[in-house]
Amino acid sequence: MSEGAARARRRHLLPPGTGLGIAMLAPAVLYILALVGLPLALAFAYSLSDVKVGSEHAHFVGLDNFRSVLQSPTFRRAIGNSFIFTISTQVIVLVCGNALALALRDRFRGRGIVRFFILLPWVAPISLGAIGWKWILDSIYSVVNWVLARMHLVNLYDPPMYLGEPALAMTSVILVHAWRMIPFSTVILLAGLTSIPRDIPEAAAMDGAGFWRTHFEITLPMMRPIINVAVLFGVVFTFTDMVVVYILTRGGPYDTTQVLPSLAFLTGVLGSDLSEGAAISVFLVPILVVVAALMLRVAHRAEVT
Amino acid sequence: MTTPSGPRRSIGTRLGRWVIVAGFSVLLAFPFYWMAIASFKRGSDLYNLQNNPFIFNQPPTLEHLRLLFEETLFLRWCWNTALAGSAVVIITLVLALPAAWALARLTGAWGQQLGIGIFLTYLIPPTLLFIPMSRVVAVLGLQDSLWSVVVTYPTFTVPFSVWLLMGFFKAIPRDLEEAALVDGLTRLGAFVKLVVPISLSGILTVVIFSFTLVTQEFVYALTFISTAESQTVGVGVPIFLVRGDVYYWGSLMAACLITSLPIAVLYDVFLDRFIAGFTVGSVK
Amino acid sequence: MAVVETRKLTKIFQRGEVGAVNDVDLVTRDGEFLVFLGPSGSGKSTLLRMIAGLEEPTAGDVLIGGQVVTHLPPRARGIAMVFQSYALYPHLTVEKNIGFPLKAHGVPRPRRAERVAWAAGLLGIGHLLHRRPRELSGGERQRVALARAIVREPTVFLLDEPLSNLDAKLRASAREELILFHRRVKTTTIYVTHDQVEAMAMGDRIVVLDRGLVRQVGTPGEVYDEPADTFVATFLGSPPMNLLEDGDLVVGFRPESLVPAGGGRTVPMKFRVSTVEYLGSERILHGFVVGGRFEGRRVVSRLTAATSGSFAPDGVHEFAVPVASLKFFDRGTGARTAPREVDWR
User: Fold this and answer.
1) Contact call for C104 and A199, based on CB within 8 A
2) How is domain B66-282 classified at the architecture level of CATH?
3) pTM for the whole thing?
4) Which residue in the set B1, B2, B6 is minimally distant from C54, CB to CB?
5) CB atoms within 10 A of CB B254
């Protein structure tokens, strides 16, 4: 390389902090700070004030909103539901996703088409999938009831109200969430499964392990980081989702299926009480912080190994 | 070397696998089949409890579709969504492409840290931000306008796209860019003329996924936009296709199906690329 | 201690394609170290995997200890295998790795601990029991893999190119450890490799495979000195045997047989040197035959350090090959034939 070219090369190298690097990062960072950072700060600010839609001025009220919110039985029900729904959904999703990933691991004819069908719940817009379920679980015309009636398990003219009775409604919400998350989980778990080198299960077979022992003592532990990622994402997506509840039940019957995000929406937007709505949604933060911390730990461990 | 075929799987295993695959395929895809049937069933067939719901007891009809296209704002909503989606994709690319490249090439630990930090903002959900965000939107004078979502959607498409693109860019060997520098291009020139064209497949993946993220969104659109004409399809269909207490199920199901299928096809085609990009990004 | 036998063992991967393993009949000897040697694609790994039960044969049978095991799963065969990558379970400690086969067979914990200690002691890794595989060196990992293999006291060991992933320096010492290990436990061992030096150094007998067919089975001495065909002749030995074609005959002689002319019954061969590789302990001379029937053919000579004399390039020297070192092959089939008179002029 000639002297001149070498000098030119050294001049154009990008050490950290060069003007160009910063200039290219700046728009994205500024945008995020403005449209994520600012509203986030505002959310906390609102929760500590008495802002309502159309207020001219806001006054600092300390923890009043939180106090009033915590005393509300609806709120307590909502926070309980958020946890129940999220945990139940994750359990179902993990078991089903695992089974599906195992079934899809080896190549077989028609795997591509199967994958398309299995992906559908995740790729369709949530609201539309939920509306579809609303029709399937309709109080009068539910196809589920029709089938059950044919099997003489329910009376077609006095059927169970899947969206109208509290226990059934909760179950319906959980199942719809699970229906939506199973494809996501399956794809991630499948990626984890295929990353296990082929000779590990072969060694296990040589060592005398049958299918179940291999799966629980070798395969699953090796997939732990991926499973963690799938669970963490799944928890966030379910815990912070308001669409399924809003469309299926609007939180009913009588607020029995309310969750934090839907309650925040009902209070803050439909009820116009911005500060109380903000206070409710602030309760999402602890969970998000825990999840973020766990994700960082998983990422850090992945770098170490 | 030929790939080994492995030991013969027992009948039990093969049967088990088929049961699981078939069972889940049915369970997961069934609502869409249901949507398809409901879209074409006559009202008298649809709302008749005596009829077998799985088959057409009366000849199928296009009435629901006609209603959907001619008497509702469905097409308008699709147009709105397409428009907003395209605008959001452009904004996302403009913001995320340079940022991802700068992060991928930035030496030192803080390049990776900043990347993770940006990705973590994806975890901040709209259901936390939507209340103050509605105020921001109002201040910008965008309330009840489609532009409100165009401005706010990049808050989740950008972090995601930065992460994906970082992965793709990291896979490009530095030697390529340095060769370009030796040949006389500036750093920025190398980016525009070399890196971007090479990464087209990765960029396309980001475009598709950003677009699908836009079509999926519900909370912001519901909060910021109240007029039916300006609404997106994800909110318009469940909210405005209901007149009073009456659900026009036939048209509703048709709308769901028509919107979901193209997105599903796109997603399926690009899924492998997406996974590759994701795992490349997380593995050093 | 058992004898492994294969009868007409065949594996075809795709319909109509030539089989990866064709009609192999083999019988091991009790307690021997048998090597499957061949280039990549020769079917040696496939053959091993069928014996292990990891691959379903298209035809034929596998017998272990006199019992037909062809369709039995690996764990019913009483064998153990060491993989090329060692396949240690990364999330388990060395102790749990070694103990895993016992756990899988339902051995209770106290007895398990005994056996693990015994196996670890045998391989000198008792001090590593609480480490994880990623903290171990290549040689240590091999020892853990061997401990895991032996802990159940199997009747047969199968090793699939375990030294390929080690770097050259480590390979030699790992090889010696394997030999010592085999001498201690005396279990029938089948060892797969593409490295003919390894095969010669370690094997009691070598099975030379090419494209799914067995070319020769014999001791290292037999396959080296009396190769059954041109494939075996050129595969073993480096540099490979010199082969000169003459009509329907092929005459072969090893580079170490082409030496400066001395006494005894020899065939004289004038040799023009083109390049010299000086390797310290020996010299490899590449060159051409001068004069006679095989004028201009390329040949290689190997001289030990003991041979004196300078053989610079472009020089022509009087070399010779002892008649007894000549091997004769049929040109069409490549098979070894009886010695014949060759006109060297």
Assistant:
1) no
2) Orthogonal Bundle (1.10)
3) 0.83
4) B6
5) 26
